[in-house]
Amino acid sequence: MSTIEAVRGDITTQRVDAIVNAANSGLLGGGGVDGAIHRAAGPRLLEECRALRAGSLRDGLPVGDAVATGAGRLPCDFVIHTVGPNRHAGQTDPADLARCFTSSLAVAREVGAASVAFPAISAGVYGWAGADVARIATEAVRADLAERGGVDLVRFVLFSEELLELFEARLAG
Ligand code: ADP
């Protein structure tokens, strides 16, 4: 059985095998959690992202897809970058957001990451309601782990008390 938990905190300090970045499709950094991850990881992370853009991801990472890099100076081994749907750009399909979680878990299995921390993807600049993100994220992760296993711990790391309560309520239900 896998453990799924929610904590309030900063994802950049999590001691897990992989943390997930709510990136944008350009992969070259941004605001919010993306900026915090790049600042804490240092320049090596950006170099790896640039290399991806110069190679297999010339057109950027599509919404809902995920890709792994190393983690620079972060206390984890991998950063898994995924791109949430941007509500302000009309990307309102919950399946796209669910796929961010399932593709990130698929990448975690590929690289052998047994513990994974997720932020509240799309709940910031990309404009999704926290309650919707909490429901979609917890349902997607639960279903995926029940079906495929292979990841021992999923930890949702929430930046606000409000988001923490929304995720906790979903996990308790
Ligand atoms: P998106 O563009 O996918 O909406 P954001 O980074 O704007 O991504 O926000 C996603 C969520 O991550 C928000 O709830 C935001 O408060 C939160 N967040 C920002 N910095 C951190 C951090 N260091 N650790 C965890 N969560 C963070």
Q: Label the overall shape.
A: globular
Question: What's the helix-strand series?
Answer: EEHHEEHEHEH
Q: What is the β-strand count?
A: 6
Structural class: alpha/beta
CATH superfamily: Leucine Aminopeptidase, subunit E, domain 1
CATH topology name: Leucine Aminopeptidase, subunit E, domain 1
Ranges with pLDDT <50 over ≥5 residues? none
The molecules bound to the chains, other than polymers, are: adenosine-5'-diphosphate
| Straight-line distance between termini | 17 Å
Return the domain count. 1
The second-level CATH architecture is 3-Layer(aba) Sandwich
What is the residue-mean pLDDT, rounded to a whole number?
98
Outline the biggest β-sheet.
Answer: 6 strands, mixed
In terms of DSSP E residues, the strand content is 15-25%
Structure in words:
This protein has 173 residues and is α/β, with parallel strands linked by helices. The protein has a single domain (3-172), classed as Leucine Aminopeptidase, subunit E, domain 1, CATH 3.40.220. The chain has five helices and six strands, in the order ββααββαβαβα. It has helices spanning 32-41, 43-54, 94-111, 130-148, 161-172, and strands spanning 3-8, 18-23, 66-70, 78-83, 115-118, 153-158. Strands 1-6-5-2-4-3 form a six-stranded mixed sheet, with helices on both faces. The longest helix has 19 residues, at 130-148. 47% of the residues are buried. The structure holds adenosine-5'-diphosphate (ADP). Adenosine-5'-diphosphate (ADP) is lined by residues 10-12, 22, 32-34, 36, 84, 119-126, 157, 159, 163.
